[in-house]
Design goal:
This protein has 113 residues and is mostly helical. The chain has three helices and two strands.
């Protein structure tokens, strides 16, 4: 068996493991090739996670904007007050801002505490 940790400075992804039924199957060349493959895997996994986080952030941004619009129209308040209301509710109730925005979009108002 030969294994390589898959990690970056900020994230741990797991282990890349190679197995052989034959004793002594892995050589120094195998180790170098495995290390190279592990390095490339770390880069690919990190890029995929970053891409997914960016997509989620964009979707959250859109939903937060919709929720702000609902609060602005319903309460006749400016944009900054609408955002502050969402932020305050999020902090006071320990709920992620994007989840508060989703509730506002579904219910048409901030949920009652």
């Amino acid at each position: 068996m030969m294994g390589f940790l898959l990690l970056t400075e900020h994230e741990d992804f797991g282990v890349l493991s190679f197995y052989s039924c034959r004793p002594g199957a892995f050589t120094e060349e195998s180790e170098r090739a495995g290390a190279l493959l592990a390095s490339q895997s770390e880069v690919a996994l990190s890029a995929a996670r970053t891409h997914a986080q960016m997509e989620q952030a964009l979707a959250s941004r859109h939903q937060i904007g919709q929720a702000m619009g609902i609060l602005m129209a319903r309460h006749h308040i400016p944009e900054d007050e609408a955002f502050n209301a969402l932020r305050r509710y999020s902090q006071d109730n320990n709920i992620k801002l994007r989840e508060v925005a989703l509730l506002v979009c579904e219910q048409g108002a901030l949920p009652q505490r």
